[in-house]
Amino acid sequence: MKQKGQGRLGWLFASPYLVYAVVFFAIPLIWSLFLSFTDWNLIAPTFNFTGFSNYIEAVKSPGVQAAFFVTFKFMFLFVPLVIASSIVVALIIHGLPKFKGLFLIGFFLPYLASGVVSSLIIKGILSYNSPINEFLRKTLGLDIDWLGNPFAALFVVALIIAWKFTGYYALILTSGFESISKEVYEAAMIDGVNPWQRFWKITFPLLYPALFTVMILSIGVTFGIFTEVYQLTGGGPNYATNTWQMEIFAKAFTNLQAGYASAIAIIASIVTFISIFIIRKLLEMWGKRNGWA
Amino acid sequence: MDGRKKKGLFFRYLIAVILLLIMIFPYIYMVLTSFADWDQVDKKLIPTDFTLKSYQWLLGGGEAVIPRPWLHAFFNSFVVSAGSTLLMMVSGVMVAYALAKIPFKGRDTINNFILFQMFFPAIILLIPTFLVIQRIGMYDSYWGMILPKALSLWAVFMYANFFKAIPDTFIEAAKLDGANDFQILFKIVLPMSKSITTVIFLFLFMERWTELLWDMLVTKSDSMLTLNVLLSQMFGPYGGYPGPMYAASVLLTMPIIIIFLIFSKKFQEGMQFTLK
Amino acid sequence: MKIKKVASIMFAASLTVSGLAGCSTGNDSKSSTTSKNGETTIEFWAAPNPTQQVYWKEIADEFTKENPKIKVKVSPMKESPTSEASIQSAIAGKSAPTMSENINRGFAAQLAESKALVPLDTLDGWDKVKSDRNMDNTMKGWEFSDGHQYVLPIYSNAMLFGWRLDILKELGYNEPPKTYSEMLDVTKKLKAKFPDKYVWAKADIADPTAWKRWFDFFMLYNAASGGNKFIEGSEFTADDKAGESVLTFVNDLREEKGLLTRQAKDPFESGLGIFTDIGPWTIAYWKEKFPNMKWNETYTLATPPVPDGMDTSNVSTFSDTKGIVVYASATKEQQKAAMKFIDWVYSNPENDLKWLEKTSLPPARDDLTTNDSFTEFFEKNPALKPYAAAVPNAIPPMDNAKYNDLQTLIGQQAFNPVVKGEKDPKTAWEDMKKAIEGALK
């Protein structure tokens, strides 16, 4: 009797999610699948079913192949970069007896920046005749084509996004440090452990849960990059920064190939899903094997 | 020994301050450049001559240019972000309460589905969501921007975790006093969740405020532009006027920083819990 | 049990959605027409360019004064990321305007293929517009492959190259070079005297975005080929010799270190580069932001350089030409009102003159050089005179519906890699040809 009332109440409270899941998840998902087998362009009154040809064309296209590899290249640049920088920030802040909160907030501020704004600033700072580039050229003889060189462009985008997330991840890591008790350190001091060993043998394993969260979060970030690439490179040079979102956006809304773009979106989703799943499992195995998790 | 410790601490602070300055330098650059004389925009890292010209130009237009609706876009951004965030908070609280505190058949199914959906790449839904909004007749309206972002799985997840930690005895006691679940949720559970609410609110608001792709797709008229979209549009035609672009960036960034700083104390408390 | 419940809720929700969808289709046409007591409202999208918005707002106000039954609502089209994309999503969102300007031929072909445009020749009064505006000849070149007319071109703007005259003079030249080898000589002298300067400093030449080819490749190619059609219908008909010579020339410029493909701030205005494409709109922009840029002192304008041995007078160039279309989603009343508006605007040459004064873009009419009201304007604005003179030799863009893909291929396969020194000109041209022929199939 009571159980029944509870059931209705439960569904009532959960109803916002149910409506949302149907309207903005289930229906779009089915629609997307349907579109991916057509040649519809969003505006023509009619369309044809084209079977799997969108998928075949997508797999063969240089833009999609680039998106596949760019995501992983980006991951190998961005994830170590952001993890290293956030560990450094967290290590420095952690030991401060005063103003710790103030510093945490300060480092967190970049996370609040809109990608449009940070792209604008970076564009200004990296232009050929900007103060920094003039300096590099005139004093060091360095002439770097920041956005025209494939590796440099990828690096710049990774750097902007790492800049944005460092403070946020550092915040997560400092709370990981907090869980490490003073006694453990003191015990280690007595045993005469040097700082390097201390970091790897004590800090790192205890930090691992927080680090795991940061790694998963940052890997998730790499699959959803759009604004910075869209504003800075448009996916170039020669697809070197062409992310999945960029490719889908360009095909659907610039080239007006909604059907084809839907096929790419589905491929992107499958790739993302499988990649994150595998990486997660690998990280878990790695943690378990070393006895951290 | 003590002196060495003091010295070490001093260096720690020094490094922290230097690092912090590097991290927030882009902001400093943005604000200074927005007030810089046009000859110095992007030509000097720290400008020396200052003027209000960029702001005047931005809001009043130049000789060859008519002004764009910056203030209206600011208003739009606010309406959309506030509306969307509010809905995400309410829906998040409700669903999370159901998942955490109401035992009912199907709860586990919903729970699993939410987890599945959280890891589901959202890109796939971009085009059809656009079509759904168009069919419901919400293209180019506030609702078109707000509704697809009226529920945040992340907020549900965070709230559910927090609610689970609240002892059931509180709720049972309230029930014995004759309170229903709505009253319990809004009068007892929510007041206990102030700090996490601050964290969730700030994250959601910030994320909505800086949204670009969706708002760009789903609006067409000037009266619906959000600040971020307007700024992104100005890259092309006004690329020759970087000063006003920096001024617009200040307009876009400052509100969120101010809101954040106002709530920063609560935010820190909330983060402590979130990260446990 | 569980599944049943979920399924029934989902079903109910999807019904609500489709029900709402049913309502909205009825609403759409109402919201844009509002024909109360015989009044028709038409929505006109002006180009994102601010001066054009001002022009159309004023014109619409005047028109409504004389025709109170027709309200013209002017708003600028968005650029997200291009004005084309925003038109497409508006059509897909079922809220296209009645009409808009700023449509090029290729895009019109693409829209026409999706039946999104009204063939203007099927509307009453089309012939009257053509003769009133004196544009019968111009319109012949605008016929689409199905025999219809979809676009009324507003302006035809022959693109020219600007040269920094002050710097040329320092190198001992009194006028810009005209042929490839002359230009290479200038490059050598420039690099000898100012190693930090470049001839052509423009990041766009290394960017494959389709429309960017209009302002580099097509200017040079049209000049080198004497105005040969690059694509005819769905055939690749480009002049191989001219194409290869353009690429070879660009390659030579690169080898002399005359090209800079880096994103730079005001490269031409600051004298970092001494050569770049210039449209009339730039001159108004300079007036406000770079008052030091003075015609015949700091800069001058010239037609594109040509291969050695070609005639250097009457050189062809690219014509940036765009016009007005009427969208098929507009009601019959709106289409009629739109035509009335067009006719009202273009039966009076004063409106074209006003356009010319406001935007500096030469109106697309047959009598531009003979009609007194225009010649007077060009006498007063000598910097714009070269544009009027180049109009007869200006070649409009291709009208292929796949123009976006095709022009991207020109950049990706040929122009960009040559500019960056990644391909030799001959292979680049061959690769591009193969790719384009594949895409046209």
From TrEMBL, chain A:
Origin superkingdom: Bacteria
CDD domains with a match to the protein in the record: TM_PBP2 (cd06261)
Segments forming domain ABC transmembrane type-1: 68-279
Pfam families found in the cross-reference section: BPD_transp_1 (PF00528)
Membrane disposition: Multi-pass membrane protein
Primary site of residence: membrane
PROSITE patterns reported for this sequence: ABC_TM1
Entry's localization field: Cell membrane
Family matches, as SUPFAM superfamilies: MetI-like
Membrane-spanning parts: 12-34, 74-96, 103-126, 146-172, 206-226, 258-279
Record keywords: Cell membrane, Membrane, Sugar transport, Transmembrane, Transmembrane helix, Transport
Family as reported in the entry's similarity comment: Belongs to the binding-protein-dependent transport system permease family.
Protein name: Multiple sugar transport system permease protein
Species, as recorded: Peribacillus deserti
From TrEMBL, chain B:
InterPro entries, sorted: MetI-like, MetI-like_sf
Gene3D superfamilies named in the record: MetI-like (1.10.3720.10)
Keyword Membrane attributed: yes
Membrane-topology descriptor: Multi-pass membrane protein
Membrane spanning residue stretches: 9-29, 78-100, 112-136, 142-163, 184-206, 245-263
Domain of life (superkingdom): Bacteria
Domain ABC transmembrane type-1: 74-263
PROSITE patterns for this protein: ABC_TM1
UniProt-annotated location(s): Cell membrane
Keywords: Cell membrane, Membrane, Sugar transport, Transmembrane, Transmembrane helix, Transport
Family to which the UniProt record says this protein belongs: Belongs to the binding-protein-dependent transport system permease family.
Annotated PANTHER family: ABC TRANSPORTER PERMEASE PROTEIN MG189-RELATED, ABC TRANSPORTER PERMEASE PROTEIN MG189-RELATED-RELATED
Name of this chain's protein: Multiple sugar transport system permease protein
Lineage: Bacteria, Bacillati, Bacillota, Bacilli, Bacillales
From TrEMBL, chain C:
Claim: Transcription regulation is one of the keywords in the record: no
Source domain of life: Bacteria
Signal sequence interval, chain numbering: 1-21
UniProt cross-references to Pfam families, sorted A to Z: SBP_bac_8
Gene3D superfamilies from the UniProt entry: Periplasmic binding protein-like II
Keywords annotated in UniProt: Signal, Sugar transport, Transport
Cited InterPro entries: Bact_solute-bd_prot1, SBP
SUPFAM superfamilies linked to this entry: Periplasmic binding protein-like II
Zinc as UniProt keyword: no
Protein name: Multiple sugar transport system substrate-binding protein
Organism, as annotated: Peribacillus deserti
